[in-house]
Design goal:
Rossmann fold; 216 residues; 8 helices; nine-stranded mixed beta sheet; alpha/beta; 29% helix
Length: 216
């Protein structure tokens, strides 16, 4: 997807992907990773997610990466936080307490930027990208994150021929191939088609949320 696509979605407030509560899979499975307090956690394509604040509340140092400056501004405003704003390479960095949001293109990340991230949380990144880009995205993570990294990844799996993304369908095999060299464990699969009118109207008969633990 071109950056302008997501910038326009935020400008038009077309952000149906934003959840009004902390993700229940995150709350259920994150503690099972056993990351020590103070661990740094990467949240790619984070938007203004409430999950960022939840992770910080668990004692983590949170690094979110987000293309839209509007989304970054909204996160700090809606949480009543005063951010320090600086620059690091290609990114405008907003920081308050244990939360840093880096505004810019995730593909501009370097090893020195995220090489100390012990955790990864992806609810909305891999499913936001079309096929070629998400392959490059998973390759980027594998190339930059440390060998001790582990995390939680949530995907959607449905018949892509019936409805174009985003969100895009990411099947089990594709995710495992994308995270080649990682241990990929499926934790839960939930049928959510009845809660998804857009998919029902498009004739999609099954929409699966798949939850994974990934570790290196």
């Amino acid at each position: 997807m071109e950056p302008a696509f997501w910038q326009q979605r935020w400008a038009d407030n077309q952000i149906g992907f934003h959840q009004a509560q902390v993700n229940p899979y995150l709350q259920k499975y994150w503690p099972t990773l056993g990351l020590v307090p103070g661990s740094r956690v990467l949240v790619p394509l984070c938007g203004k997610s409430l999950d960022l604040a939840w992770l910080a509340g668990q004692g983590h140092r949170v690094l979110g990466v987000e293309l839209s400056r509007r989304a970054v501004e909204a996160f700090f405003r809606e949480h009543g936080l005063q951010a320090e704003v600086g620059q690091r390479g290609a990114f405008e960095v907003w920081r308050s307490g244990d939360v840093e949001l880096w505004c810019g293109d995730i593909f501009a990340l370097q090893a020195e930027d995220i090489g100390d991230c012990a955790g990864l949380y992806d609810r909305a990144a891999v499913i936001a990208l079309p096929s070629q880009m998400r392959g490059a995205y998973m390759q980027l993570l594998s190339g930059l994150l440390p060998t001790s990294c582990q995390g939680v990844v949530v995907t959607l799996d449905y018949d892509q021929a019936l409805l174009g993304g985003p969100p895009f369908s990411v099947g089990d095999q594709e995710l495992r191939q994308g995270f080649a060299g990682w241990q990929v464990d499926e934790l839960e699969v939930v049928e959510v088609i009845e809660e998804s009118p857009k998919f029902l109207q498009a004739g999609v008969s099954s929409l699966l949320e798949r939850v994974y633990r990934v570790s290196r």
